[in-house]
Write a structure and sequence with these properties.
328 residues, alpha/beta, Rossmann fold, 9 helices, 11 strands, 28% helix, globular, binds adenosine-5'-triphosphate, binds iron/sulfur cluster, binds magnesium ion
């Protein structure tokens, strides 16, 4: 199947100044995203997981053309999204929607729910004026909100209800792909499951694709067909969701899995792993970037960089770890 969205070897590095000017500062770069390739197919959900600072939001903003990569390409239906203009750009802006973590910050506090959801319908001229109210009410019903919400303002809603409004606004334009950047992390655990159910229902009904981003591996399990695990700006494992949850290949994935609380408030993570803090993306460790925290590191790990490769006998999976290549 042809990919809807194709991200090839994208990099985003930010210049930073290091050291005191008195002693001579040197320019170094913060590698927010450092060579990521992923694709999303129609009616599929790609989960993207990693700890804070691993580059997930930077990747999401490049995928949606809100941020231009320094290197690499982003293609939607085979076309470079940064080469689009006019009608084609407008069509891309309609086809790909982004939902953010904080539903309050992404809503205009002075606009009613009706105004918020009617706006994209008007911009894209999708519904005759006389039918906008009915269309907005139908979109609200898709996300489990009644018509009584129409005249209300964001502050009158709970976090979960606000996120529903954001989803309804994204849905208004019948997108082909929704990039959801930690859509659940600002919400109570009990509400998270409701939002997941709404997203899963929409996928089944509309055939939409998602990129679903979370720092919690267990949360993406409910929705994802495949999962990419990010560490310090790179993908360290990319597998079908079932295979990944049954038997993670990368020690970092295994650590995230053991430590993930998931959606069940009564579940206790087995242990607090991965141990230690994520190193700074300004000073990425030599060799395998995960080696200072890896419980399974061995001789070449601190000096040889592990490439992302398909291990023998692991069809459709790639991993960046020496346990799975020639050093094994
Ligand atoms: N505009 C910027 N200028 C400098 N550094 C940036 C900028 N945007 C992001 N970064 C840095 O890039 C790295 C990746 O950030 P990003 O927000 O993509 O991570 P994330 O995985 O989304 O984290 P979180 O889980 O906290 O949302 C971080 O170290 C961040 O501080
Ligand atoms: S390459 Fe070595 S340090 Fe890196 S994850 Fe694999 S075993 Fe651990
Ligand atoms: Mg983020």
């Amino acid at each position: 199947m042809a990919a809807l969205l194709n991200v090839h070897d994208v990099k985003k590095h930010y210049p930073v100044r290091k050291g005191f000017a008195l002693f001579g500062s040197r320019g170094v770069s913060l590698k927010a995203v450092d060579g990521v390739s992923l694709s999303v197919e129609e009616n599929r959900v790609l989960g993207v997981v990693g700890e804070s600072g691993s580059g997930k939001s930077t990747l999401a903003r490049m995928m949606t053309a809100l941020l231009k990569p320094d290197y690499g390409s982003v293609e939607f239906e085979g076309k470079n999204v940064f080469g689009l203009s006019g009608k084609e750009l407008k069509a891309f802006r309609r086809a790909v929607q982004i939902i953010f973590q904080d539903p309050f910050a992404s809503l205009n506090p002075r606009a009613t729910v009706f105004e918020t959801i009617a706006e994209p319908l008007k911009i894209h001229g999708l519904v005759p004026r006389g039918q906008i109210r009915d269309k907005v009410a139908a979109l609200l019903s898709e996300v489990g909100l009644g018509p009584d919400s129409l005249g209300r303002y964001p502050h009158e809603f709970s976090g979960g209800q606000r996120q529903r409004v954001c989803i309804a606004r994204a849905l208004a334009v019948s997108p082909r792909l929704i990039v959801a950047d930690e859509p659940l992390s600002a919400l109570d655990v009990s509400i998270q499951a409701q939002i997941i159910n709404i997203l899963a229902g929409l996928k089944a009904r509309t055939g939409m694709a998602y990129v679903f981003i979370s720092h919690d591996l267990r949360v993406v399990e409910y929705l994802s067909d495949e999962v990419a695990v990010m560490y310090l700006g790179r993908v360290v494992e990319h597998s079908g969701a079932e295979e990944l949850f049954a038997a993670p290949l990368h020690p970092y994935t295994a650590g995230l899995l053991a430590s993930a609380p998931g959606l069940d408030p009564s579940s206790k993570p087995e242990r607090q792993v991965p141990k230690g803090d994520v190193p700074s993306p300004i000073d990425i460790p030599s060799g395998c970037p995960f080696h200072p925290r890896c419980p399974r590191r061995f001789e070449p790990c601190d000096r040889v960089f592990p490439k992302l490769v398909q291990p023998a006998g692991q069809q459709g999976r790639v991993v960046a770890c020496h346990l799975w290549n020639q050093y094994r």
